[in-house]
């Protein structure tokens, strides 16, 4: 789930058209209208993504596939999950998501440092994981 961008095309000498496309694929086929906030989730119990009013929730870590997903998020939510039982699994997920987000060169360098983190419930987070969330992301909010 990536943001949309406005593009312009010049048709002839005086005609210009503007259109909106996905930053990732360059098409408008999968755009979702009306989303104001995107929350990335590590843990939790959503399958892929869900939408609640004007907020989209995107699962950034698949414990089954052991794979992180890239998305343009406004907030990171760390939640308790039936799939992730110990702090090592959360450490691995947080590191993988961080690496995917920070290595996307289409974003500003300080993008990840501006993402606030919210912890929901009581997931087993190590001191190291909390340090990464506090120092590499935008800090833990309560």
Task: Give a verbal description of the structure.
The protein folds into 2 domains: 31 residues, no CATH class; 109 residues, no CATH class. The longest helix has 16 residues. The protein is elongated. Helix content is 18%, strand content 32%. The protein has 2 helices and 10 strands; from the N terminus they run E-E-E-E-E-E-E-E-H-E-H-E. With 142 residues, it is an alpha/beta fold.
In N-to-C order, the SSE pattern is EEEEEEEEHEHE
What coarse outline follows from CA principal-axis ratios? elongated
- Distance N terminus to C terminus? 25 Å
Report the C-alpha radius of gyration, rounded: 17 Å
Helix segment count? 2
Q: Summarize the main sheet.
A: 6 strands, mixed
What integer is the average pLDDT?
Answer: 87
Estimate percent helicity: 10-25%
Give the neighbour order of strands across the main sheet. Answer: 4-5-3-8-9-10
Return the structural class.
Answer: alpha/beta
How would you name the oligomeric state of the polypeptide chains in this document? single chain
Question: Helices, strands, pairings?
Answer:
Blueprint: E1 4-11, E2 15-22, E3 37-42, E4 49-52, E5 55-59, E6 61-62, E7 67-68, E8 75-79, H1 87-102, E9 117-120, H2 127-135, E10 140-141
Parallel strand pairs: 3-5, 3-8, 8-9, 9-10
Antiparallel strand pairs: 1-2, 4-5, 6-7
Helix pairs in contact: 1-2
């Amino acid at each position: 789930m990536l943001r949309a961008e406005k593009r312009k095309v010049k048709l002839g000498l005086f005609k210009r058209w503007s259109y909106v496309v996905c930053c990732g694929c360059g098409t408008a086929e999968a755009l979702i209208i009306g989303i104001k906030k995107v929350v990335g989730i590590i843990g939790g119990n959503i399958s892929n993504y869900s939408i609640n009013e004007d907020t989209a929730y995107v699962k950034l870590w698949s414990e089954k596939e052991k794979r992180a997903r890239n998305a343009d998020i406004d907030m990171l939510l760390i939640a308790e999950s039936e799939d992730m039982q110990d702090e090592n699994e959360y450490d691995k997920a947080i590191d993988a998501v961080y690496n995917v987000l920070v290595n996307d060169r289409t974003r500003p360098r300080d993008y990840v440092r501006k993402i606030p983190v919210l912890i929901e419930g009581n997931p087993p987070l190590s001191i190291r994981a909390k340090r990464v969330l506090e120092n590499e992301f935008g800090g833990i909010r309560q």
